[in-house]
Amino acid sequence: MENKLELYSQEAEQAILGSLMMNNDYLLGMDFLEAKHFYFKDHQLIFERIITAIASSRADQITLKAFFVERIENGLSYMSTLFGQASGVIDLKDYARLIVDFWQKRQLQESLQKINFSDDFLTIRDSLDDQLIDYGFESSKQPQHISKLVDKVIDDPKGELLFFDFENLDGLTGGVELSDLIILGGLPSSGKTTLCLNLARNISKKGGVIFFSIEVKDSSLARKFLSELASVNPFRIKQGNLNQGEHSSLDRSRKDTANYQLMIDDESGMTISKMRSKIKRIKRKMDIKMICIDYLQLMTPQKKEFSREQEVSKIVEGLKKIAKDFNIVVVALSQLSRAVHGRENKRPILSDLRDSGAVEANADIVMFVHRDEYFLERSREPEGSKNYKEWLSLYEASKSRADVILAKQRNGQLGDCQFHFDGLFSRFTQL
User: Fold this and answer.
1) DSSP 3-state assignment of 303?
2) C-alpha torsion 40→45→47→52, nearest 10
3) Strand ranges across the sheet with 401-409
4) Which of 8, 30, 260, 421 is 20 to 30 Å from 150 by CA-CA measure?
5) What is the pLDDT of residues 14-65, one digit of tens each?
6) How far is it, in rounded angstroms, from Cα 106 to Cα 112?
7) d(CA 5, CA 250)
8) Closest by CA position to 293, among listed 315, 260, 326, 261
């Protein structure tokens, strides 16, 4: 007869409760532990009561005596049992983690029993991914004394920073800190996807990057990437109509792509929970430094909110949490509102971010891609008109020029970086 695996430890639960009653300070190292993690109902009740007692005064055999007598069978005798189990306990955090581990396994077991196997596999997988995130557990980060933090910033002032290998942009940012959320805004066809892919290319030479392409298919993104490396028109790559020189350049660049730690994911209907699951899987095999999302407003909310602005707010908060939890840089592309078109000065400002309140508030850095050429092309003056020469002069001066505007930076200066924009080969190069 097969033995059923016991997904609990009565001794560990008793040791935790007895030790907490003996020394309330033990709770400081276990603030991730909750009553629901205990297997036995009485232990859940006792833990809740200990927490309540500590919050108001203290929890010991005197303050808890009445509770044990009234709520726990053989209360005083069981209190003595708990105190007995506490003796000799050295590191309670290990016991607490064991209790949580068992709880996670019980929750997973319950989820597996509820699976509807008539659903397709992807639906089942996504459902399990969402639930596993809910069951996820990371020990809470403990407060640190200011003296230790000061020592850290003096001894290692920079920490680990990411540099995009664009000297002008890196000069303004001073390097981007891991856990930063960067919003890269721009109008459609302004070049924001191209710039983001260029940034991803440079970072992926040094560390892992995941590019979540919600709008553009992975094959189209791969052509843009290859076009930039090989200086071959992506339209010609798509058609396969290449000359000998272009064939040779593509062959060389194809081999070079092995040197880039860049992953492309073009799944639609991307939610925060799906994204977290994918990052976790890839992080086991690759040291992820940055993820990119193209683009923010196409992400799917976990649940329907009262307004689209509230949904975007939850998504942006989720992206910032991803940046902190995984200690990575998150670059999220964002559409701009139509307000830009209604102004004489077309340079984007923070309020132009679509659903701007939450986006601006959560971002550590907000950058905009701005090209005067984009607007001048759309306001072309008829040849021979009185304003044509003025328009032509402005248009010629703006061709292939782009500004990357740092409109917000928590830990650095604001300003503009000038780039040459080569749309044909999907390339930004600094001026």
Assistant:
1) coil
2) 170
3) 262-265, 208-213, 288-294, 329-334, 181-185, 365-370, 401-409, 415-422, 427-430
4) 30
5) 999 999 998 888 887 777 888 999 999 999 999 999 988 888 888 888 899 9
6) 10
7) 56
8) 315
